[in-house]
């Protein structure tokens, strides 16, 4: 298996590249193919292509095709044999195609024609047999040239090969038999039960009958007795969808929430998409099973669906998709892009149908996959229009759909972070405000688009200041009485750039509310850095960026009994400690990460209060 010699040129001897076959096989086994088991896929694929080529022969040559041309597999533990009734090879073909790495009889001038007809095209697939055997033995008789002798080729892994012709009796019918004598270390891939399992794995949807004989004397068994489930006829639509769901379950190991039939005649694609019954982490892309002309190419193809479609797994069989040399993925070309778009459209149509006519299915689907749908709705107006009212959101009324929430709250307020929602939820809901947590990916964008489909609804951002404005001020007298305490508290919390105010709000059990947006904290950090770097280049830059640094606000609740007592404390140290403790408790309640200074403040105030309590008791 070396490249043919080239003639010497006048400027010096022209030399020919030598191919080190061992190195090439090593390259294939370690870098191209995922496992030695692919040798069987390559043999089956060559047999399928040979049968296809035979069908394309002139009517005279095709007339001799056996009644049911097929592929016969044999594995008895000693040898693995694949026999086909395909087009066969002449001696010249053997030299040209079998013995020349990288040359293929399937390569056509027109890529489209090549894709339409054959699975192979690179002229390297047969080399995969060296992953399990040191020698490949081929016996072939051409159907194209019926009077050509039978030809025998033996190719060895070290690059040597022999060819000889044999009398017609050596192979009475046209076709090809490939025999491997596996190496001892390849028994895992070549023992009879494994060969049968691999044949079923790769070939269960092949259109040509494939049989398997384990050499025990028992009759050969069919590998692909049934056509693909979508190619079969069923008495009723219900029976059809049950059969498709059962197939999905067999292939993927889960009971699909629903099964969507796929059919794209332009590329000869048929198959099913199985809707996963459980939530999958957003962005986790699932591999789909892709067959080309019935042959299983990949179980992990991601590229046939867009990213948002992570709620389905597909099995498809296509005529016109183009595999890469490893056959384990697909070429990213215009056809693949068109297939992806068409399949995405099919999934959208399924969602639309469920939204319009199957609320139960829609409910179960959204329960498991609302995140996927949200990511889709952000970019897809039609999905947004159909599904936004049904999507669940975290709100001050609990988890509910936007539609239901908008019915009870004419103005839907939305926070920009989870943290802000946590800070304000209890108080906002006590104040009768309807707030949606807009902190999760997509949620704020989606809530803001509600008026597009519910024009009567109003949506506004809820910033902490809006909420503060909704809290009732205390009367003047109370304010004056608390003034000294508030001044001490402000002084104690100045290090956190935190103002302190007294208001009344529900629930009365909440002593204090810390209103502090993330932007405000960033702004304060920037201002602080600018102060520290004053005069330096960074100080100038940060200073130029500085806006009026927004302050955090600790709002004490005059309705709370503890606060009522605290504001009357005269003792300066205790007043200070109680203010720090109230700040610490409110910061913890907001559930945002605490800064180191805040953690130590909480510790200190707790110990101080404890010491105070113990002193009082002694
Ligand atoms: N069973 C067969 N019947 C007839 N010809 C065959 C058979 N197996 C292999 N060949 C010939 O040997 C050539 C090389 O086969 P090989 O499997 O290496 O590459 P390929 O199928 O052409 O392309 P790919 O590398 O994409 O599989 C084929 O193009 C074909 O001409």
Automatic annotation (TrEMBL):
Organism: Streptomyces longwoodensis
Residues the record lists as binding ATP: 42, 46, 84, 176
Coiled-coil stretches noted in the UniProt entry, renumbered to this chain: none
Name this protein carries in UniProt: Molecular chaperone HtpG
Gene Ontology MF terms: ATP binding; ATP hydrolysis activity; ATP-dependent protein folding chaperone; unfolded protein binding
Domain of life per record: Bacteria
InterPro entries: HATPase_C_sf, Hsp90_fam, Hsp90_N, Ribosomal_Su5_D2-typ_SF
UniProt family annotation: Belongs to the heat shock protein 90 family.
Alphabetic keyword roster: ATP-binding, Chaperone, Nucleotide-binding
């Amino acid at each position: 298996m070396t490249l043919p010699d080239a003639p010497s040129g006048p400027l010096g001897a022209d030399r020919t590249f030598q191919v080190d076959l061992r190195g090439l096989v090593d390259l294939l086994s370690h870098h191209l193919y995922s496992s030695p088991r692919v040798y069987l896929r390559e043999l089956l694929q060559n047999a399928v292509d040979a049968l296809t080529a035979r069908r394309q022969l002139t009517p005279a040559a095709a007339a001799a095709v056996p009644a049911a041309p097929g592929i016969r597999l044999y594995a008895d533990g000693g040898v693995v044999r694949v026999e086909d009734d395909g087009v066969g090879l002449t001696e010249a073909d053997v030299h040209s195609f079998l013995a020349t790495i990288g040359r293929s009889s399937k390569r056509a001038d027109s890529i489209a024609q090549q894709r339409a007809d054959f699975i192979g095209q690179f002229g390297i697939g047969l080399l995969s047999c060296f992953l399990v055997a040191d020698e490949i033995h081929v016996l072939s008789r051409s159907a194209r040239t019926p009077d050509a002798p039978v030809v025998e080729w033996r190719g060895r892994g070290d690059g040597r090969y022999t060819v000889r012709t044999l009398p017609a009796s050596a192979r009475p019918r046209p076709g090809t038999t490939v025999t491997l004598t596996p190496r001892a270390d390849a028994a895992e891939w070549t023992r009879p039960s494994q060969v049968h399992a691999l044949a079923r794995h790769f070939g269960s949807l092949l259109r040509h009958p494939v049989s398997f004989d384990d050499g025990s004397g028992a009759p050969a068994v069919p590998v692909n007795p049934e056509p693909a489930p979508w190619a079969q006829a069923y008495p009723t639509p219900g029976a059809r969808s049950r059969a498709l769901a059962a197939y999905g379950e067999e292939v993927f190991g889960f009971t699909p929430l629903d099964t969507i039939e796929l059919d794209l005649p332009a590329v000869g694609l048929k198959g099913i998409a199985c809707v996963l019954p459980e939530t999958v982490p957003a962005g986790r892309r699932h591999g789909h099973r892709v067959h080309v002309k019935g042959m299983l190419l990949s179980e992990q193809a991601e590229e046939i669906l867009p990213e948002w479609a992570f709620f389905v797994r597909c099995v498809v069989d296509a005529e016109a998709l183009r595999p890469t040399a490893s056959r384990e993925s697909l070429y990213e070309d215009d056809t693949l892009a068109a297939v992806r778009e068409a399949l995405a459209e099919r999934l959208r149509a399924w969602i639309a149908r469920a939204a319009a006519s199957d609320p139960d299915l829609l409910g179960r689907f959204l329960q498991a996959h609302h995140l996927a749908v949200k990511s889709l709705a952000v970019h897809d107006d039609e999905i947004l229009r159909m599904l936004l009212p049904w999507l669940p959101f975290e709100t001050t009324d609990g988890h509910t759909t936007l539609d239901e929430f908008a019915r009870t709250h004419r103005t839907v307020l939305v926070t920009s972070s989870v943290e802000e929602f946590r800070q304000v939820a209890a108080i906002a809901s006590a104040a009768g405000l309807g707030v949606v947590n807009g902190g999760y990916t997509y949620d704020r964008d989606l809530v803001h688009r509600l008026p597009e489909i519910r024009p009567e609804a109003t949506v506004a951002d809820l910033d902490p200041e809006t909420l503060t404005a909704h809290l009732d001020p205390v009367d003047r007298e109370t304010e004056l009485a608390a003034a000294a305490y508030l001044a001490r508290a402000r002084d104690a919390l100045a290090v956190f750039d935190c103002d302190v105010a007294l208001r009344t709000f529900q629930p009365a059990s909440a002593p204090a509310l810390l209103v502090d947006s993330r932007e405000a904290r960033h702004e304060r950090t920037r201002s602080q850095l600018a102060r520290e770097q004053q005069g330096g280049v960074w100080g100038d830059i940060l200073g130029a960026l500085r806006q009026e640094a927004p302050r955090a606000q600790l709002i004490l609740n005059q309705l709370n009994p503890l606060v009522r007592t605290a504001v009357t404390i005269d003792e300066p140290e205790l007043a200070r400690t109680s203010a720090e403790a109230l700040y610490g408790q409110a910061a913890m309640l907001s559930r945002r990460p605490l800064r180191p200074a805040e953690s130590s403040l909480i510790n200190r105030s707790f110990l101080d209060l404890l010491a105070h309590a113990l002193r009082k008791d002694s």
